[in-house]
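User: Sequence in, structure out. Go.
Assistant: Echoing your sequence, followed by the C-alpha cells.
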Amino acid sequence: MDPEALKALAAKGGRTAQAGGNAHRFTAEETRKGGEKTGAAMAKDASYMAEIGRRGGFARKRAKEAHRAADGSEDSTPAKT
C-alpha cells in the first residue's frame, strides 16, 4: 500500500476510535511505567548504551562548533569582567 494512503487510513481509524470512545489514552502513570520498562531493557545492552552516549557527545560537539562558527568566536568561555 502507498505510504500516504496507509497514513490517511490510519488517521481515519484513529479519529473513528476517538469519536467512538474506543481509543486508549495512557495515563501519566502508565506512560512512566512504560518508559521504565524500555529504559531497563535498553540499559542491559552496555555496548548500545555506550554507542548512543558517543553519538550524543559527537552531536553536542558539532552543535557547539556550529554555534561558534555562526558567532564568529574562537572561544566559548565568557570574558571575565
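User: And one key feature?
Assistant: Residues 46-71 form the longest helix (26 residues).
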